[in-house]
Amino acid sequence: MILRRAAFVVCLLVLALGAGLCDDAIMGRYNSQQMSYTPEVVELPLMLSWQYTAAKYNKNTASPVVAGDSCYFATGDSVYCVDLFSGNLKWRYPQEQSLTSTVKATPTVYGENLYFGTGDGKLYCLNAESGTFEWFFETRAALRCPPVVDEGIMYLGSDDNSIYAIDAETGDSLWPKPFAARDDFANGIAVGAGMIVGSSMDGNIYGINQSSGKLRWIFRMPSAPVKTSPIMADNVTIMALGNFLYGLTTRSGQTRWMVQLPSDVTTTPATDGSNVYVTCQDKKLYCYSIIGRTPALKWTQPADIGGVCSSSPTVAGELVFVTAARGIIAAFSTLDGSLKWRYIAAPSGINSPGATYTDASTSPIVANGSLLVLTDDGVLNCFTQTAPDTTAPDYYYLTPVNGVRMSGAPPIKVSVALWDAGSGVDFSSATLMLDGESKEITTDYVTSTVSFTTEAGDSKSPVKPLKDGVHIITLTVKDYAGNLLTKEWNFVADSKMPPPRRIIKEPTKSTKEPTPVDRSRFRRTEEQPSAENQQYQPGATPPPPPPMPPGQEFGSPGAERPDYRNRGTRGRGYMPSPPQ
Fold this sequence. Notes:
By secondary structure, the protein is mainly β. It is built from one helix and 43 strands.
């Protein structure tokens, strides 16, 4: 079994290299087996190279695809083609108007054509070079599954409860009639080993003969697969649902193994043929080795993502990339799950003015030396290892405020929010010192904040207040490109100032029921300020960096940052920077 799986992975590498397609990502999750795996190796750290701002489309799950020097992506009711190396717009379809419905799933490139499905049941075929219309194939309901191509045949799962097989060149149906289930095929289908495996919203997984479209087997699941779809590795079909991971024999549908996960799965897993990578509701990434008879956890500890993933991970060489809520983009080692790189995508000042964050609901794509991430605000971000980054991270929201006079009584919280536009903040390099003494810090990835709190002590061993006078706080932190930020600020301790309120409770037991609280007196009246009008408080999500003032855009004389502006013809903007 071990030798067979190793040979399977080697064959994938040889076939990819022999076909000259190892650097492309021509369909959703890379191949017909939906593995979300590419053998391409990218060097870290990655720096932001360019951005293209298209139309905003919340919870967009249609990932970009790449063929040669072109990147294709969909947002809402439009499809775009941009140059992979410059970000320049090549074409947009439709050019002036909009589609009759939105694009629900990742497009596919095959030969000279680009294919994508829409919410009104149409599969469009465009010329990939020019963006001109070729033909469309119409089903009876929405197309939410990415089109899958295998040996010139395209397979489509539709919300009309059917799976179709059509000629990718002509659009002609190849089966006498489509395969029909009792509910939608909404998330995805996998093709391999002579079989098509699709999960239907009726709670079943169907194994279908690839050549005839006839049913071979049915596997009953405990519930409908709302978030996940099948993937294949060798002759094993893998399906995650709820807090279970199933392994089925692809040809027969028999259960080979079943693993209980620590938490509910959030999206379709990824596999490199030897391991399965699963993101869960607990904001963790788990890796299971499937080489043996029964899957086993490979890493000592799961990888801490810091946010909930809604898209499949992408395995590229010895790295697994994930995107998550609040703009998180991260790379972890496939060997031990250690964090290798992390970046926070800022919300678009064009599409989301005033927003505090943006989500990344599409899978990250590695192709031709680039990492591509499409965020929900319609911004396509391209990262490369060769992009310039000579600017240190930015800081904001210093706590205590610089120069403030305050009591020196403990506890005193010290914190600072950090952000970096180029390569991302390397939080592992951050240090905070108080009066030259290094402190143990805590990192909050949600707010991009590092902090420490002075020791408070207790009633039996109280801690003395800081001496009156000026106290110096020193921050040092690098970005992943190695640019160092050193920041000093101070506060004045004054014993005449009132100390912070502290209530120390000793552990006790009581049989008396707590007095109920009248919550009505806490309701906000019209005279009270709303949350939107209140100032930022430490621990809250910081507001997004504002746009640069006119005349100070990146690339202008005297500007220190690299030019992150869109090089396309639409959505002209620039990467904002946070306030000093």
